[in-house]
């Protein structure tokens, strides 16, 4: 009790610092008591950390007159506070993460390390996420058909449902757009009458295999329920991998299962997606299911002994080895794709690549070595970070 009283007495002066020094003792208190906390995880021995420190400090000065509780710039010595660094999966220095209302946002900061860029990033994060309209044509004109969108209709803004949508939108502002129509008279037939729950629909982008709208029918007043529903729609089970986002995807720390296909092949993508939705909904936090252009990713295909002529091809990259789903048509066999993923988690794929199928007679098959990982090489560039030694993520 005395320790917490001491911390609370020191907190006002502490937060007046340009960059707040966080430790294992005060980390949770600071991120929970401020809307935005921009944290620099560093190590004193890391030259990239030393290069960033004065830049981070100068950028923080642009926000020193912000409203108390709105934005805090902070730093964590990851060597001295390893428990905090480990909790947030910091495996390179410096790492910049944004915390919003006590929760870490999905994407860490990965852009230019300049005063101007850091300032612009935080200014952008402080902007309103939900676009509000009182006129139907204006809402329709603002909608970007190339983005996944959530469109809501509310009688007014003074409701727990509106507040929940506003808070959820802050976490998925980069992946999706959020549009809201206000007023029953402004949006007749769309805004429910007073006393009824608001209306919310998910509109997939025009690139989606199934572009049909999906209405929200759950408990709008429960923040976590709404957030999970938005996450499931905004961050789908199957995403596209490109050379531009591959580094970012590797940082999620999950092995990849990739469908390599031709750019215009929508049939195999739908078959792959349907199989994952049907067989692997519980594996979202265990493997990243991705679709990639096999023409662009020729190199990983060659590691598997495949070429463009063999597309579509499914493979797992564990960041140590690559494993081939031997026959794409087997995806139609119930349970086959799920077995492939579970065999990765159990170690069976790795074992069988070393020794062949489990022997029936007791004769040991000769050792073989699976192809090395290709996407492991697309992890963060050493010219921007000090990478901690990791044998496998």
- Provide the helix percentage: 25-40%
Uncertain residue ranges: 1-16
State the separation between the terminal residues, measured CA to CA. 39 Å
Kindly estimate the percentage of residues that lie in beta strands according to DSSP: 15-25%
Task: Give the domain tally.
Answer: 3
Give the ordered list of helices and strands: HEHEHEHEEEHEHEHEEEHEHEHEHEEHHE
What does the main sheet amount to? 5 strands, mixed
The 3D shape can be described as globular
Question: Do you know the CATH topology of the largest domain?
Answer: Glutaredoxin
Radius of gyration: 24 Å
Strand order of the largest sheet: 1-3-2-5-6
DSSP summary, beta strand count? 17
User: What is the level-2 CATH architecture name of the largest domain?
Assistant: 3-Layer(aba) Sandwich
CATH class of the largest domain: Alpha Beta
Secondary structure class reads: alpha/beta
The chain-level mean pLDDT equals 86
The CATH superfamily of the largest domain is: Glutaredoxin
Characterise this structure:
This protein is of the alpha/beta class. The chain is 32% helix and 20% strand. It has helices at 2-15, 27-32, 47-60, 82-87, 115-125, 136-142, 160-171, 223-234, 246-250, 266-279, 298-303, 336-346, 348-355, and strands spanning 20-22, 36-42, 71-77, 92-93, 95-100, 103-104, 131-133, 148-154, 176-182, 199-203, 214-215, 238-240, 256-261, 288-293, 313-317, 322-325, 386-387. A 5-stranded mixed β-sheet has the order 1-3-2-5-6. The protein has a 5-stranded mixed β-sheet with strand order 7-9-8-10-11, with helices on both faces. It has a 5-stranded mixed β-sheet with strand order 12-14-13-15-16. It is globular, with a radius of gyration of 24 Å. The two termini are 39 Å apart. Mean pLDDT is 86; it is low at 1-16. Residues 5-127 form the Thioredoxin domain. Residues 1-17 form the signal peptide. InterPro entries: ERP44, ERp44_PDI_b_2, Thioredoxin-like_sf, Thioredoxin_domain. This is Thioredoxin domain-containing protein.
